[in-house]
Automatic annotation (TrEMBL), chain A:
<dbReference type="Pfam" id="PF13452">
    <property type="entry name" value="FAS1_DH_region"/>
</dbReference>
<protein>
    <recommendedName>
        <fullName>FAS1-like dehydratase domain-containing protein</fullName>
    </recommendedName>
</protein>
<dbReference type="InterPro" id="IPR039569">
    <property type="entry name" value="FAS1-like_DH_region"/>
</dbReference>
<dbReference type="InterPro" id="IPR029069">
    <property type="entry name" value="HotDog_dom_sf"/>
</dbReference>
<feature type="domain" description="FAS1-like dehydratase">
    <location>
        <begin position="27"/>
        <end position="162"/>
    </location>
</feature>
From TrEMBL, chain B:
<comment type="similarity">
    <text>Belongs to the enoyl-CoA hydratase/isomerase family.</text>
</comment>
<dbReference type="InterPro" id="IPR002539">
    <property type="entry name" value="MaoC-like_dom"/>
</dbReference>
<feature type="domain" description="MaoC-like">
    <location>
        <begin position="11"/>
        <end position="115"/>
    </location>
</feature>
<dbReference type="InterPro" id="IPR029069">
    <property type="entry name" value="HotDog_dom_sf"/>
</dbReference>
<dbReference type="Pfam" id="PF01575">
    <property type="entry name" value="MaoC_dehydratas"/>
</dbReference>
<protein>
    <submittedName>
        <fullName>Beta-hydroxyacyl-ACP dehydratase</fullName>
    </submittedName>
</protein>
Amino acid sequence: MSDLVTDELHARLLAFVGRTSGAPRVAADAVNAPMIRHWCQAMGDENPGYTDPDWAESGPFGQIVAPPAMLQSWTHHDRRFPTATEPGNAEEELVDVLAEAGYTSVVATGCTLRFVRYLTVGDRVHYQATIRSVSPRKSTALGEGYFVTTEMRYIDAAGEPVGAVDFVTLRFRPARVSGGE
Amino acid sequence: MTGGAVFAVGTPLPARQIDVTTTLIVCGAIASRDFYAGHHDRDAAVRAGSPDVFMNIMTTAGLVSGYLTDWAGPRAVIHEIDLRLGAPNYPGDVMRLTGDVVDSVTGETGAAVTVRFEGRNSRGAHARGTARLEIRQ
């Protein structure tokens, strides 16, 4: 791998900064009690505000709410089931460019979750991402890669913000030999 | 909720130990609708450069969120969680969550509290960060 090639890739990646995922994507499902219950059971979170309607009636919101940390789940995209290719989705194009260059692995390294309001059953979340920065190529314990910072904005059906996430991932070329420990 | 002094600066949160199992990692990933194979398929995780499946960040955030509200009470409202990940959480790890109050402002309706937290496993800090909560009377 020559420096020239690396520099060319970084330059290509920098062109994504400021671009968005396109028009806000609507959550496949409205905020719903079964997904909330699954989350609480998986996490071992017994907060009655999420799952007990009787408690929630006299709770701070008067009804059950989704755990705030679920925010990203409502619109999480499963790449095994690609939707019709929408041109101009910088978030997905960036991943494709990196994968074609061998940077096929990903780990999240940080997130800042900001909650404007808690979501209630029936809320339909809309999602839009903006690529905020791409680091120069870094050597890490996992392998060489690029840190990508994405600003994720979440709005409700009325267009009002419900929360935002600044999300940092490392897109890397695995250093470990396949099958090794 | 007694408010006031309970949430004074310097107050430690009770430590919590979480056994990190394949079950917790897989259930957390699927509950957060994260089907990335590295969170549920050991062979795929190894091919992608990890020794085993690893916890996704949404599960970490969910565990931290539950840790905070179990301490602050179910009427607490979380406004922000700022989270940096370090050492991954793999099956067999034990993550020890600790925290302490670093800022606290008590008003008529409750307290606005900032908590610093850390989740460590045997290889170091898996997660560290701060969270802002509103704890209503």
